[in-house]
Known about the structure:
Blueprint: H1 15-35, H2 38-53, E1 62-66, H3 74-79, E2 83-88, H4 91-100, E3 105-108, E4 121-127, H5 137-147, E5 148-159, H6 166-175, H7 188-195, E6 199-207, H8 210-216, H9 228-245, E7 253-260
Parallel strand pairs: 1-2, 1-4, 2-3, 4-5
Antiparallel strand pairs: 5-7, 6-7
Amino acid sequence: MNSGPDQNFPPAVPSSESLQTKHYERIAAEYDNHYKDSYSQKYIRRFIIEPMFSGIELNDKSVLESMCGGGQVTEFLFEKNARVTGLDISPQQTTNYKRRHRRANVVCGSILNSGIKSESFDVVAVVGGIHHMPPHINESIQEIHRVLKPGGYFCFAEPHSETLAESFRRAWYKHDSLFAENEAAININALHDGFKEQFDFKHECFLGNFGYLFVLNSMIFRIPLKLKPLYSPSLMAAEGILNKLLGKPFSCYVVAQWQKR
């Protein structure tokens, strides 16, 4: 696979990405504790990963897990016999990723300047990474488009801005130290306008309610991990029902499959 060799350090990056790198180096240990616990992993599998890859054949496909952190979807991809490369700008997170997923390749670098050859991957997957990229979201997606093969899939899950809770979320992002200064939910309609000539928007669903907030994002709400077994099963059961009833205005995130033209 022509995805480039393993690397130890990222190249020069914009100030916004440097900000994100420093931010995640600071919170990496706590982040992993909360997002790698068993209930968060069950939530991610059921409500993010499975709808994100629904209907896509992954057997023997080359997949770039971009902005991978410790590897949100890697084990699922291995179960489907995909060939996986992780990409992240954080040296600490790429070290963690390689330690956990020894079968994967790993590149420490920026999604804006990855050094990966064009048309290298059948699928690019991003979970919660694009909303860390302002003011370079469009450039990030352009790079994803470049490294995808024709007909390849860009699969992603991101908090979206067309929700009734957006004003509250913006205020929280601004004042909470667990968020970097440039984080912002994506506007899916604006992205449609910007990339309608490059992608076909094959599938999108708007999900995420109380389970998303208190199970998956327990770190943000400062919930002790020892309390999660007490409420997570009931909230996840309710999430499955609410996701069928509530549309875009009442959801927290979007799960999407875009196909490169």
